């Protein structure tokens, strides 16, 4: 048959008619679409292994990205936290210094008055005006100073620096004739 065009055989799943140019496909299934066959046996297990491996890879990548993000942001967060702590400490220090400045200004203002200077001279230096008498009251209930029984001398608290007290203590401990 020379002159007659050949027809292509219809694809499986397509309707028996061939499509002509300009015609639309029937609603519903498209031509050539295959329904997935249910997998059984080894093929199903292989597909499940591939899906599991893919899921594992995704979690590993996600975990790695989160770890990288944490490593990058942790020093920044720690620096921010340390700076906030330092800022709070400096705020407390400024507040304390402002209170100290107010107290010193109040004292400066007091020392500007003659009455306060006179009161401090009387109290601290035991100054009196001509014709006045001063009395010093000794508290009888105060602790009595220690008295050395052998010499009768009053033992005053040591005024030596700590390092001299230690060296004299070591020397006394080494001396066999020192009283214990």
From TrEMBL:
<dbReference type="InterPro" id="IPR007060">
    <property type="entry name" value="FtsL/DivIC"/>
</dbReference>
<feature type="coiled-coil region">
    <location>
        <begin position="87"/>
        <end position="114"/>
    </location>
</feature>
<keyword id="KW-0812">Transmembrane</keyword>
<feature type="region of interest" description="Disordered">
    <location>
        <begin position="1"/>
        <end position="50"/>
    </location>
</feature>
<keyword id="KW-0472">Membrane</keyword>
<feature type="compositionally biased region" description="Low complexity">
    <location>
        <begin position="11"/>
        <end position="45"/>
    </location>
</feature>
<feature type="region of interest" description="Disordered">
    <location>
        <begin position="139"/>
        <end position="180"/>
    </location>
</feature>
<keyword id="KW-0175">Coiled coil</keyword>
<feature type="compositionally biased region" description="Polar residues">
    <location>
        <begin position="157"/>
        <end position="170"/>
    </location>
</feature>
<dbReference type="Pfam" id="PF04977">
    <property type="entry name" value="DivIC"/>
</dbReference>
<keyword id="KW-1133">Transmembrane helix</keyword>
<protein>
    <recommendedName>
        <fullName>Septum formation initiator</fullName>
    </recommendedName>
</protein>
<feature type="transmembrane region" description="Helical">
    <location>
        <begin position="59"/>
        <end position="77"/>
    </location>
</feature>
<feature type="compositionally biased region" description="Basic residues">
    <location>
        <begin position="1"/>
        <end position="10"/>
    </location>
</feature>
């Amino acid at each position: 048959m020379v002159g007659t065009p050949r027809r292509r055989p219809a694809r499986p799943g397509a309707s028996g008619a061939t499509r002509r140019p300009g015609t639309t496909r029937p609603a519903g299934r498209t031509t050539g679409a295959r329904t997935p066959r249910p997998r059984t046996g080894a093929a199903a297990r292989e597909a499940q292994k591939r899906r599991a491996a893919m899921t594992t890879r995704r979690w590993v990548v996600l975990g790695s990205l989160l770890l990288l993000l944490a490593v990058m942001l942790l020093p920044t967060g720690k620096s921010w936290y340390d700076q906030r702590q330092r800022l709070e400490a400096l705020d407390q220090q400024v507040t304390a210094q402002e209170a100290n400045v107010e107290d010193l200004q109040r004292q400066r203002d007091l020392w500007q008055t003659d009455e306060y200077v006179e009161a401090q001279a009387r109290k601290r230096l035991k100054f009196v005006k001509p014709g006045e008498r001063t009395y010093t009251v000794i508290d009888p209930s105060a602790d009595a100073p220690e008295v050395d029984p052998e010499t009768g001398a009053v033992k005053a608290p040591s005024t030596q620096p700590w390092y001299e007290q230690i060296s004299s203590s070591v020397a006394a401990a080494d001396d066999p004739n020192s009283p214990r």
